[in-house]
Write a sequence for this structure.
């Protein structure tokens, strides 16, 4: 009987030792990977000097009526939803001339997954010379094909592809390398080598609305905007607008705090054509 008890104790003790060894090994792996991630620093990119004024920037024209479209984020689901929303706006006629709402949109502002759909739309849509609706108010053949391709493209699982690439190439340890994987996937599956310079030409011809892609700087949380609109026209002083709209007197101290916060959060568009 005592031999059986000792044997059971020995078995339990061995199992505990093995579990402890597994925990130690797992902890060591985690510490190693954490240390490795600290050693992998973000790559430094040196950008060439650009001409002044930049060829990809176009000032905003004065218009009596401006219709803008705000496209929200939410990953691949937002991109797919937006592709369907664009199509429905193309079917909705307004005004005496019966033009579709989407044809009247002159600005598109987007974030996150909504930017994927918005960028695809402005880069791939048919030119201005091709109508969205025919004489019977139905979507034309060119736009039917475009919207069909649009929804197929937005149905692709780019998030899964991003995860696999980051895992297989060990890029997940550094956010800069994760962003590199995303840029590769977007280029391979959606945009090719299109640039904002080429987008500026589309906007100039009236083939596409003005696009504003809103992002956030990783290190300090400030808004970073990609667009063909010049920097000075993007720096809206909302602190001054708040003060003007206020029904009560604004103290100098409060005004100074508002202005400081406005500068902290203001748009930081890039100074290059990409």
């Amino acid at each position: 009987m005592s031999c059986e008890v000792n044997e059971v104790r020995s078995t339990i003790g061995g199992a505990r030792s093995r579990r402890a060894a597994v925990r130690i090994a797992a902890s060591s792996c985690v510490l190693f990977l954490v240390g490795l991630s600290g050693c992998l620093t973000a790559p430094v990119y040196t950008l060439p000097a650009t001409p002044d004024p930049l060829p990809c920037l176009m000032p905003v024209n004065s218009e009596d009526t401006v219709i803008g479209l705000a496209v929200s984020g939410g990953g691949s689901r937002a991109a797919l939803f937006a592709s369907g929303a664009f199509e429905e706006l193309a079917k909705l006629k307004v005004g005496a001339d019966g033009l579709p709402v989407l044809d009247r949109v002159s600005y598109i502002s987007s974030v996150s997954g909504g930017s994927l759909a918005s960028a695809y739309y402005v880069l791939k849509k048919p030119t201005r010379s091709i109508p969205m609706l025919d004489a019977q108010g139905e979507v034309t053949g060119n736009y039917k094909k475009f919207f069909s391709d649009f929804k197929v493209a937005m149905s692709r699982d780019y998030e899964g592809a991003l995860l696999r690439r980051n895992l297989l190439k060990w890029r997940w340890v550094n956010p800069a390398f994760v962003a590199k994987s995303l840029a590769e996937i977007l280029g391979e599956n959606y945009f090719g080598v299109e640039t904002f310079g080429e987008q500026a030409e589309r906007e100039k011809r009236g083939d596409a609305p003005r696009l504003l892609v809103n992002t956030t700087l990783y290190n300090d949380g400030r808004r970073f905007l990609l667009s063909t609109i010049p920097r000075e026209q993007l720096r809206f002083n909302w602190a001054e607008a708040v003060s003007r709209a206020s029904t009560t007197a604004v103290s100098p101290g409060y005004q100074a705090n508002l202005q400081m916060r406005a500068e902290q959060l203001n748009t930081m568009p890039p100074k290059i054509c990409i």
In short: The chain has eleven helices and six strands. The first strand starts at residue 68 and ends at 71. The CA atoms of residues 95 and 101 lie 9 Å apart.
